[in-house]
Amino acid sequence: MKLWSTTALLSESQLRNAADYTLTDWSEHDKNQENRDLAKAEIERRKSEAERKAEEAAAKERAALAAKRDRLAANPFDPRTEISEDARHIASRIVTHLWILFVLLPFCAFILLAIAGLIR
Asked: pLDDT by residue (tens digit) across 72-89?
């Protein structure tokens, strides 16, 4: 299926703004050989640019991981992902005391009042 075909030369803006499937169609079915070559060159440029961007992103990610690894080597405690033993101890004490205050104490009070006969 021919999406667009002409004998006129394609402009740079047409090539840059064309969709991938349009470029593929131009590179395979255009009447003008120079247009086919231009479309193929644009396809190759886009592929190499995508590969370059992927390599740059991978390099940035590797650099970020290396920097994080270096920071953690200098200070192995990461406060965003780890909880210190002191914090765990304090939290367990708070939870224990809250459980005693709001569960065990009312239950014991109810039992004592029931035994004393004040609750029927």
From this structure: 788 776 666 778 889 899
The H helix count followed by the E strand count for the chain is: 5, 0
Q: What is the pLDDT of residue 26?
A: 83
pLDDT at position 1, please? 42
**Percent of all residues in the chain with a pLDDT value above 90, rounded to a whole number:** 39
Tokens of 27: 């590179």
- Report the C-alpha gap between 51 and 53 in whole angstroms: 5
Average pLDDT over residues 51-59: 95
Taking a C-beta distance cutoff of 8 angstroms, is the pair 22, 3 a contact? Answer: yes
* Residue 60 tokens, joined: 């940035």
Question: How much is the pTM?
Answer: 0.48
User: Which value, to the nearest 10 degrees, does the dihedral of the CA atoms of residues 42, 48, 50, 55 take?
Assistant: -170
Tell me how far apart the alpha carbons of residues 27 and 96 are, in angstroms, rounded to a whole number: 73
Instruction: Provide the 8-state DSSP code for 79.
Output: T
